[in-house]
Amino acid sequence: MPYNPFLSHAYLSALEESGSATAETGWLGQHLLMEDADGFLRGALVCYMKNHSQGEYVFDHGWANAFERAGGRYYPKLQCSIPFTPVTGPRLLSAVSGDPRPVREALATGLKELSRRHGVSSAHVTFVPAEEMPIFERAGFLHRTDQQFHFINEGYGSHDDFLATLASRKRKALKRERRAAVENGITIDWLTGSDLTEAIWDQFFAFYMDTGGRKWGRPYLTRTFYSLIGERMTDDVLLVMARRSGRYIAGAINFIGGDALYGRHWGCIEDHPFLHFEVCYHQAIDFAIAKGLRRVEAGAQGEHKLARGYMPVTTHSAHFITHAGLARAVADYLEQERRDVEETGEFLTEHGPFRKGERQQD
Predict the structure, then answer these.
(1) DSSP 166
(2) Which pTM does this prediction carry?
(3) Where is the region Disordered (predicted)?
(4) Which among 120, 62, 88 is positioned nearest to 4, based on CA atoms?
């Protein structure tokens, strides 16, 4: 299985040790561990007790509001995901050398039991790989789908090779956009490894706080988080930084996996037309092509990514709801939502930027 940086101890511990994902911020670690009779770890499920639904990217605020209007208590709940990280990856982690299915099935069943023991309203496992969903469904979890946009590298030798697969009008529009993004004397740097100094993190954190404060009200990640990943994951991180007049004015953080580049968030202290698209999307494609990575995952939602070569991909989540009435209502809702997601994905794929017969498929 390709390396997923968000499942590493370095990443998860940085979130907790930095004060980003803690009980104080509403992310109390309740990780589910499965051990054999001799105390050896056989499986694990990353899990948090939460008293809100922020930083998850699979939205259940409507469920919470409806349940509480009816007299129920939705929070606390259990959330099995990587905090603030809308990236699909293994959730039912198995440490056995043989068939992992018994361990995975036991973890899914154990999560239900943990929900009942804690007396919570629900347990949510988000950004689940498609191959794990049948295990959750057999255990009684509801299946939810959503949509992201990913760039698929079809073995391109350069960005121009990718552009050649687009319809002529789309290709010309992207070339104009990329030229316009840097025409105010802006240059772009890729920083990774030893480039990631504390001075660089100071600058990037200023971008994150400025843009995150305007977008979310309260940015999730602390300055210490960046220092910790800079120490522990230096070769797994790519900063795409935009420079003008001798100083950095914008940047995007990406994590480098075994076969994918994962774009996470960006920030800026100057506004320039199309700079966001250049730093977050076009440069990520350039890097993936240069390094031979199979795909770029550019975060949650965003139909504007379609015109830039990122195609719709279905994401999955599993939900166990302890209250029978709420479970029935949510199940009815999800049945229609899954149809809507499928139809929207088909429509967007049909109207993507690629020439007929050259649409990307993951």
Answers:
(1) B
(2) 0.94
(3) 342-362
(4) 88
User: Within a 10 A sphere around the Cβ of 173, how many other Cβ atoms?
Assistant: 15
CATH topology of domain 31-149+313-350: Aminopeptidase (3.40.630)
CB 224 within 8 A of CB 257: no
Q: Render pLDDT for 149-200 as a digit per residue (tens, 0 to 9).
A: 999 999 999 999 999 999 999 999 999 999 999 999 999 999 999 999 999 9
Give CA–CA dist 45/175, Å, rounded.
44
First to last CA, the chain: 16
Domain residue spans of the chain: 31-149+313-350, 154-293
Q: Which CATH superfamily is domain 154-293 in?
A: Gcn5-related N-acetyltransferase (GNAT) (3.40.630.30)
Same topology between domain 31-149+313-350 and domain 154-293: yes
DSSP-assigned states of every residue in 116-134: HHHT-SEEEEES--GGGHH
Query: In the prediction, which pLDDT does 355 show?
Result: 86
Within 10 Å of residue 278's Cβ, how many Cβ atoms?
26
- Give pLDDT, residue 213: 66
pLDDT in tens, 269-305: 999 999 999 999 999 999 999 999 999 999 987 889 9
- Contact (Cβ atoms closer than 8 angstroms) between residue 19 and residue 224: yes
pLDDT along the chain (362 residues), means of 10: 95 98 96 93 97 95 96 97 97 92 96 95 98 98 97 95 95 97 97 98 95 71 97 97 97 98 95 96 98 95 92 97 97 98 95 75 55
Q: How far apart are the C-alpha atoms of 121 and 305, rounded to whole Å?
A: 36
Distance CA 320, CA 47 (A): 14
